[in-house]
Amino acid sequence: xxxxxxxxxxxGVLAAAESLLGMLHSANAPEMSIWGALTxxxxxLLAIEGFGQQFGAKHRWIFVVLAAIVPIxxxxxxxxxxxxxxxxxxxxxxxxWMFQELRQTTGRTEIGALVCxxxxxxxxxxxxxxxxxxxxxxxxxxxxxxxxxxxxxxxxPWTLIxxxxxxxxxxxxxxxxxxxxxxxxxxxxxxx
Length: 192
What we know:
Helix content is 79%, strand content 0%. It has helices at 3-25, 34-53, 60-78, 84-106, 111-136, 144-175, 183-191. α1 (3-25) crosses α6.
């Protein structure tokens, strides 16, 4: 197994679980905030990117279908079928298809991971900002032990996502396009 594929899969699964827990424990209804859906979508797509990295480009359509099926599977386990679920599933399948097409046409394998990490970073930044606002608005001074309990759950996801974000940027910038799978496309790219 490829290290970065497993790493993406792990970060995606952890981010999806954390997003689902956050949506379930939120005082606001999930329909009121776009951040939960954005985080969940990016996490699912990142996990599929990691899973797909293990199998290559031969099974591209399986990953598009998988991206659409995962949200439906989550709803099956929660016994809820919101009307927006079908649009969410179709949107995830479409975005995964776009990632597959971009990977195929440009030869750059980290495009999907970069987009997903950027979305997770923006969403996590919003959540972190809200948590720090809660901390600073507290009327009393927090002891060091309470601050550490507060910071560790924030530092772990930031560390995992930023490592993957730096890896994706480095791979896109330093390596350039990967060789294309089909010989005709490689010859056409060489002519251009």
